[in-house]
Amino acid sequence: MPIDLNKLPRHVAIIMDGNGRWAQEHGLPRVEGHRQGAKAVREVVRAAREIGLGALTLYAFSAQNWQRPPDEVATLMQLLRDYVIEERAEIMDNDIRLVAIGEVDRLPGFVKEPLDALIHDSADNRSMTLCLALSYGGRESIIAAARALAAAAAAGALNPDQINEERFTAALQTGGLPQLDLLVRTSGEERLSNFLLWEAAYAELYFTDTFWPAFGKADLYEALESYRRRERRFGRTREQIRSAG
To answer: Spelled out in words, what is the top-level CATH class assigned to the domain 11-228?
Structure first.
């Protein structure tokens, strides 16, 4: 499928939903849905790098996912460790910078150690940024940024009058990423589920009925094509946009 490379979003985020329902449809245990979902991550990251996306954020594990059954959480942690270790060479060879957002310190050591190592070793890569949202929550992220700014103000390092949209955005963990242009959710659900709440303020939203384990390169291209066809106004009228173009 041909894609207009001049109209690519700068930053795409994906809520990878539907692993359990995919497994149920196929008569398999939930763990198999998560395993197949990990394969979809590999395919989509590879496709994003090939097409030239600047940044891709994946909602891999939410702050609320810790409440799932312990066996399922353990499986997800093992799959995350496997991904970081098995994809290390491809990430490095393809000049991908890996970053993570969320309460990463809550991850078990057997996951966090290889993750931290790859984040460190890939820090100078520039072709694409892959951001994993791990133990992440949008509200929690906003609270953390507010606390950091409040602490800076209390210490006299920041005048409260200096706090504006730009400074608040920079205080978020995503502050070093490009502006979010497109947010994709799989599985037919149409809600943000506490994901990138601040960052999604002007993002285009794309929902697909496809479960995440079945989502691949062609599905990503469909989402990008949908984005290309949209008219982004940012509060302006259609006439203003067209006259400026």
So the answer is: alpha beta
